[in-house]
Design goal:
heterodimer, A: about 350 residues, mainly alpha, ABC transporter involved in vitamin B12 uptake, BtuC, 14 helices, globular, B: about 500 residues, Rossmann fold, 3 domains, seven-stranded mixed β-sheet, 21 strands, about 35% helix
């Protein structure tokens, strides 16, 4: 046991070092001094209060999508469609706010309605992917991916069509909401305490669900061996569907928060890749909800910090993505190598 | 072509599939290969046809040693095999399938191939349309296509693996005529089967395999009794039974019918009392598995009624059956029965009716602990199921059963287990029978069927005997029935103890 722990740690550290090494090579190839580049990522993420706030703003939706995908992964499902589910959440939230913008309701109530609408939108989109899988035999990867494209098209249609700004539609999105309908933020920043609190609560909820409840255990049984789970009396397809619904609800919530807390309008690409990034975080933490918060934070910091690189060294903004993807890839490879190593010994 | 197998060995892990097999098949003969499931027949044939490499041993063709590394290699040497499930391409046209295995680039026009095809088909009096699609053919016609294809490719040794499964009587006649024709043309034909009647009617020589060893060869006229003895081993003594004293009906089937794409099981009627054990015997895939799953609500029935404890559950789902205290234990323990990656405690929690929202881990662990020691599972509550040995996995599955059960359906309850585990598991099962649980179990182990059943039903190609008192059965009689002998020829005639002396 003791020895295994050290072996595990060794492989994980090895993967990390290798990822950094390859990134360094890429930096050198791109003509940027590696050490300075890494330092500027650090200062870009933590150099000032403003930067830390920016990291937290990224952290919140990422935590939500990670939480969602942990549920579907537990059920043995690859929910690639979180981008679309997030987008639908944003669309539903925007629709709800537009509906009641001029109604004589207390703003707080409208905000809550908007958030609920976001949750509903995401859940509906996920239910579609789930129904395609359960009743139509369409693999959830293809279903989810297809629905992502549909969601993008729907956003563009709305932004340039029925919901376009007075005058002419533009990529910068719909007409911003009345300021009373914005999620309250910390003074002088775009950081909403509410969104942060909700995200942390959700990931804690998922941790509890998967660790200590009958629901979570049965979900895992379905994910690991649905035939055996069925024979043990677990209604398998209902559990798969529910996992989709829950994941979609979290993604939709993230979409709603993006609209109401940060952009205050609907704009194309509102999901901003958080759906895919959530998948990466979940894989990197080996589907253990306990590690979701710190690793999502690390990813958020990398994303925020590397904005600096673009400005200082004229590196492409996708650099953070390269580092993150390498990390996930090498940790997964390291895990495979570790299992072989253990088998051999 | 003369074929000679010399000292062939093949093991898969701990399983010795072929041990020191020596066999000579002269050209122009039909050699029967007989044996029960898992006797090593298919392995031997797959070695000859290049699917497997032997661990040790030699293959000689016309006295010359050859090395066969792949099926393509085999066909180059003139060896072709017809698999139990024809290896063809259902979405393609017959003629395309026919041409496909041909070497070289576009060797000839399609017209020529069609001509060859028609000529060959005529020779064997097969009526196959080269333009139809393979998926519209019956299993028998697909076999015919395979035969033609292999001959066209130059096969001089033809292997048939259980070719009479799933084809009609008329097609069987045609197939046998074709096989005789092949032999008369000087080809060597290997006919693998577990059906005594087919082998006896067709083969010029029979080799019998049991547990990987060639136990004997026979020439006509065949003595059925002798073949059965070679296939299944010597007759065994039958252990003490546990007759059921209580008069409560647990299961009542009336004219139950089930079918899948190759088998139809028709009109099975049966009443089972509590504590009774019904053994379902037969070669794998004869319908007993289908029947067992139907009784548990896992296969849709096409006719008849299932009453469990007096309630009509016909057409209901497995979940409903389960709610009425029926349980099913699959043969594939790790694939269907247990959840790899979860530990024993988690399994015990899953198997019980969930109480409340949160798991009481302490209670679960105690439950696991208690059942583990009660069922003598070598493991701890924290062990994942895949880390247990096969015997311990089976004990764990039994331990997972709920306390309240009326009917237990078992698939091969002791397959792959050592004697100690087998005895232990049956002692636990019998104990539950005493408490009133009934059992249906499928097994290909005759000893197990005879030793533990109160009544036995034998399946053969979807046909079923009425339940036979196990006390009146012998290994020999059972072996004959499993091999398709001693069945009533006229509809309605009963198989019973009155016919059991026939083979003696």
């Amino acid at each position: 046991m003791k020895k295994n722990t050290w072996v595990n740690l060794g492989f994980q550290v090895g993967a990390l070092v290798l990822a950094l090494l390859i990134t360094t090579l890429i930096l050198v190839a791109a003509g940027a001094p590696p050490l300075k580049a890494y330092l500027s990522i650090l200062s870009g993420a933590f150099g000032s209060t403003r930067n830390v706030v920016a990291v937290l703003i990224t952290w919140s939706p990422l935590l939500l999508t990670t939480a969602g995908v942990l549920i579907t992964f537990a059920a043995g499902l690859w929910n690639i469609g979180m981008e679309g589910q997030m987008t639908l959440g944003a669309i539903f939230a925007t629709g709800m706010l537009r509906l009641f913008e001029h109604a004589a309701l207390p703003p707080a109530l409208i905000i809550i309605l908007g958030i609920l609408a976001g949750i509903l939108g995401g859940a509906i989109w996920a239910a579609l992917a789930g129904a395609l899988k359960t009743f139509g035999g369409v693999n959830e990867i293809f279903g989810g991916l297809g629905l992502n494209f549909v969601a993008t098209a729907l956003t563009i249609y709305l932004v340039f069509g029925p919901w376009k700004r007075p005058g002419v539609g533009s990529m910068s999105g719909t007409q911003p909401f009345d300021q009373a309908l914005w999620l309250p933020t910390l003074p002088g920043t775009e950081l909403s305490i509410w969104s942060l609190v909700i995200s942390v609560l959700v990931i804690a909820l998922v941790y509890l669900l998967l660790r200590g409840t009958h629901f979570g255990l049965r979900l895992k049984a379905v994910g690991k061996n649905s035939k055996a789970a069925f024979l043990m009396g677990v209604p398998t397809w209902q559990y798969s569907m529910f996992a989709f619904l829950l994941c979609g609800a979290f993604a939709g919530l993230a979409g709603g928060i993006q609209v109401m807390g940060i952009y205050h309008r609907l704009l194309p690409n509102i999901s901003n890749g958080y759906g895919f990034l959530g998948l990466l975080v979940a894989m990197l933490i080996n589907y253990q909800a306990l590690w979701a918060a710190p690793i999502a934070f690390l990813f958020a910091a990398l994303n925020t910090g590397s904005v600096q690189l673009q400005i200082i060294y004229k590196l492409d903004s996708s650099f953070a993505g390269v580092l993150q993807d390498l990390l996930v890839l090498l940790v997964l490879l390291g895990e495979g190598a570790r299992q072989r190593f253990i088998k051999k010994n | 072509m003369n074929v000679e197998l010399k000292d062939i060995y093949k093991t898969f892990g701990a399983v010795r599939a072929n041990v020191a097999i020596n066999l000579t098949i002269p050209a122009g003969t039909i050699q029967g290969i007989l044996g029960e499931n898992g006797a090593g027949k298919s392995t031997l044939m797959k070695i000859l046809s290049g699917f497997f490499r032997a661990d040790k041993g030699q293959i000689l063709l016309e006295g010359q040693p050859v090395i066969i590394q792949s099926p393509a290699d085999a066909i180059k040497h003139g060896i072709g095999m017809l698999h139990q499930d024809p290896l063809d391409f259902p979405p393609m046209r017959v003629i395309d399938d026919f041409i496909l295995g041909r070497k070289g680039n576009l060797p000839m026009g399609q017209a020529e191939a069609v001509q060859d095809f028609k000529k060959l088909a005529e020779q064997f009096s097969f009526s196959l349309d080269p333009e139809t699609y393979v998926d519209s053919l019956t299993v028998g016609e697909r076999q015919q296509l395979e035969i033609l294809r292999l001959i066209w490719l130059g096969a001089r040794v033809l292997i048939f693996d259980e070719p009479t499964t799933g084809i009609s009587a008329a097609q069987k006649e045609k197939l046998f005529a074709a096989l005789r024709l092949l032999a008369s043309q000087g080809k060597a034909v290997l006919f693998v089967s577990h059906k005594l009647e087919d082998v006896e009617g067709l083969c010029s020589s029979v080799a019998v395999l049991r547990q990987g060893v060639l136990v004997g060869e026979a020439k006509p006229p065949y003595v059925t009794k002798q073949l059965v003895e070679m296939m299944f081993g010597k007759a065994i003594s039958v252990g003490a039974r546990n007759p059921c004293g209580v008069e409560k009906e647990i299961v009542s089937l009336s004219k139950l019918s089930v079918e899948d794409y190759r088998l139809k099981v028709r009109d099975v009627s049966l009443t089972v009392h509590c504590g009774e054990v019904i053994g379902l015997a037969g070669m794998e895939g004869s319908g007993q598995g289908l029947f067992l799953r139907a009784v548990g609500g896992m296969t849709r029935t096409v006719g008849g009624k299932i009453l469990i404890d007096g309630r009509d559950l016909t057409g209901r789902s497995y979940q409903t059956f389960k709610a009425h205290d029926v349980a099913f234990l699959p043969a594939a323990r790790l694939e269907e029965g247990l959840v790899p990656g979860l530990n024993l405690t988690e399994h015990f929690i899953l198997a019980e009716e969930p109480k409340g929202f949160f798991i009481n881990w302490e209670k679960g662990r105690l439950l696991a602990q208690r059942r583990i020691s009660e069922f003598n599972v070598r493991g701890t509550p924290a062990n994942t199921v895949e880390s247990l040995s096969g015997g311990n996995q089976q004990r764990a599955l039994l331990a997972l059963l709920r306390e309240q059960l009326d009917l237990l359906l078992l698939e091969h309850p002791t397959r792959g287990l050592d004697i100690e585990s087998t005895i232990y598991i049956w002692s636990k099962l019998k104990l539950r029978c005493k408490q009133g649980m009934s059992i249906f179990f499928v097994s290909s182990d005759l000893e197990e069927i005879l030793q533990y059943s109160d009544r036995v039903m034998v399946f053969f190609s979807g046909k079923v005997t009425p339940p036979i008192e196990a006390a009146t059965l012998t290994t020999e009689k059972l072996g004959e029935l499993i091999g398709g002998k001693g069945w009533p020829t006229k509809p309605g005639e009963q198989v019973s103890e009155s016919t059991s002396g026939k083979g003696a």
